[in-house]
Design goal:
- This protein has eight helices and 13 strands.
- A hairpin with a 2-residue loop joins β9 and β10.
- The longest helix is centred in the N-terminal third of the chain and has 36 residues.
- The N and C termini lie far apart (71 Å).
- The chain has three domains: 92 residues, 2-Layer Sandwich (Beta-Lactamase), CATH 3.30.450; 62 residues, Signal transduction histidine kinase, dimerisation/phosphotransfer (DHp) domain (Helix Hairpins); 171 residues, Heat Shock Protein 90 (2-Layer Sandwich), CATH 3.30.565.10.
- The chain is 43% helix and 25% strand.
- It is of the alpha+beta class.
- The radius of gyration is 28 Å and the shape is elongated.
Length: 342
Amino acid sequence: MLALERVRDGVIVVDTAGEVVYRNPAAERFERARGADAVADELIGRLLERALQGETAELELPLFGPPREVLRVQAVPLRRDDESVGAAAFVHDITELRRVESVRRDFVANVSHELKTPIGALGLLAETISQSDDPAVVQSLSVQVLREADRLARIVDDLLDLSFVEAQEAPTREQVPVRVIIEEALERVRPLSVSLGIPLREEPISDDLVVACDAGQLVSAVTNLLDNAIKYSDEHAQVDVSAQRENGSAVIKVRDRGIGIPTADLERVFERFYRVDKARSRSTGGTGLGLAIVRHIAHAHGGDVTVTSREGEGSTFRFELPVADGATSTAPSSDNGMAEAS
């Protein structure tokens, strides 16, 4: 029985009269339970009754909690020398398995939808071009073809980036000053900020704020946060980026003064393909994968990313990573002045 004491699955054994003779620690939650666990206990009892009649029974039970769970319950008859001596029930928590399956289904459906739109547009544009003799029309449609092709390429690139981050169990680590990461990200988004009229402001960052990271991934994460802030800002609305040490962590903050995020959407903005404002996302060329990539990079580095926001006032994304204490940096120093682009 010692082995059963340590397993995560619940195990309940009853005698031929249906009386419980053994219940391991994982199954104690169902004894004299209330709420959802009481429902599970009733189901377990029914399956054990069937098992006492010589039938192997199995059912999947969703519990709506909180927290939400999915349990797979199996009851089997116990026999000795062809004589019934009782029955046993096994309760296996398959919540995570079902969650992963749901995410996978949603991901495939979303990828199919996202790819279908530009592919369909390309086909329609190509057909129209082939039937037109007007050079002006052909020129206009050709520009649209290039736009849709670029959109398709961005989706594929983001999918590849996300797939790579998810597949990489442990990113390559090197000690890099956070200031260097942020300055590289700012350089990547500066053309976009200039074209949209969004000023960028980098607050002074200490040279000794260093993290152990995959520099390429971290630059990609900060770039995505800045890109998101710029695209969801109104013209001339400043975007701020800062970094500082907080309780042993390096905290990078990207603040915009844009449209903000409704409270109901705050928990979902890091999901793949989730968009708060679908119409605006499509007009700005967003793929809906940027923040999902940021979250996976943060988690892969032992950190986290969160957001606070008020509609109409803007959003602040907080990207947190462990500090590489005792690190030395050979990176070039800066004047730590305010860096701006308009």
